[in-house]
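Residues pack. One example:


***
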Amino acid sequence: MNELKHVLKLTLIEKKDVSIAIFFGFIAGVAGVALMGSSGYLISKAALTSQMTTLVVMAACLKLFGFVSALSRYGERLYSHRATFTMLSHLRVSFFERLAPLAPGIFGKYRSGDLLARIVGDVESLQNFLLRVFYPPVVLGIVFLSTIFFSSFFSMGIAAVMFIGMLLTVVAVPAIFSIRKRRTDGQGRAKRGSLAIEATEFLYGFRDLKIHQQLSVKEQQLTTDAAQYNEGQRKEGLEENLAQSINSFVALLVSFFVLGVGAYFVAAGELNGLYLAMLVMISIAAFENVAPMAAFPAYFEESRKAAVRLEEIVTEPVAPRGTEQLADGPLDIKLTGASFSYPGEKSLAVDNVSIHLKPGTKTAIVGPSGSGKSTLMQLLLNVFPLDQGQLLIGGNPIGTLDQEATWQKMNVVLQENHFFYGTIRSNLMIADAAASDEQLQKALAKVQLELFPLTMTVEEKGQNLSGGQKQRLAIARALLKAKSLWLLDEPVSSVDNLTGQAIYQELFRQGKGDLFVIISHDLAGLEKMDQIVVMENGQIVESGSYKELMERKSYFYQLKQIENSVFA
């Protein structure tokens, strides 16, 4: 139950609705029992008396109990469902607030399909917590105890039989099936997660699978996962039906015992025969309410597993977040002794890197593929925490700075930039929500996309845009933001050289006096850089101006010679 503590806490935020739902559920349950008990009493009384007044009063009571039962059941449904929907709202908000600080690093630990299955499926599963896990035992317990207390005035023996029956149907049988469910349910959600992963990869990779004639293989894998998940669902259904059958059988046996014990007490003169039918009918009515407890084990285990899977994500360690703001004006970036490795990997992606990026300078970070350039960019952005070393921005340790406020001071273009379904206008206004159409058009013109209308549709992930158009649209966003720190990771790798050089000239013109950090595999045009940092195997092997590096005739010089020989 410890796994469901957080969910219970969120549920009890709406304690008023929960309390009202429990109250109406109790009234509905007691009214149903009273209706059946009154019916039994009326049958017995009608057989033993001819007084019409008593019979009319009892008939009126039957109508009253029926009306109260129906009205209370409506109120119980209304308030319990309202509390459930409110709880789900609180759960989603709470989960997102705890998940947001972990992004984007969380994507390195969980596959997107698995995350989607948890964020959507597991959260939706918890809607059953109040209605099927927390609520039924509470209401049933109150109804049963009230019924047993009432029955004890007529026969302690019958009250004892009903109490034992309550323990069996409300506690013992659900507990046994909960244990069985826990032993067999370990793979159910894993199968659903596996199915979500395979379905996501199938949809995202459909084109490549088709091109390489591997579509049938992936389809077979998806079909196998779906069949395994369906088989698991079928077994769960059979288990739930078995629980319901056993619970109903036990409830029926208890009613027979009540009848037998009551008949014995009547024969022994310890119980007035007038009340026997009433007590039997009360027993039948009370145990009719145990049906939800048959499904309790399945819903309890489902809710527990869902809570565990959600907690696995949001209980990842998070470094304390700073609150300080960066000052306005020129800013520098200083990285000292920085080392970093990705989770689960032994080798360092960045190994003991120290670099000082001064205000108003242009720095290019170059090196072969896999040398750690993009990882270094992620560290400068404070996307990943350093394993060792220190990062200072504007002289402030990164741990003391508010992360989002720091990003607000940066113009960032990454290798992969996300584009939302909408229009060119809506995707540009992410950078500046107050920008006018004229400003948006000017930004597009600076990256040579002036022919794009602002109303042009952008499909999901920018599927209708080429790689170069996506990069230029991302650069247009950075131009609109116009801050003093520019961090650009391969910003024009998909653009032809002439257009790329023109865009660089526009960036340097608009950002005159700003700090530029540019990651590039292209060694052309680096003469304009104030500093060139050369990386290999996660380390800086040399740095300096273009002229200094060429004069040294070391690593950078060799790279340049190779490039010249290839394109000569």
The first strand starts at residue 333 and ends at 340.
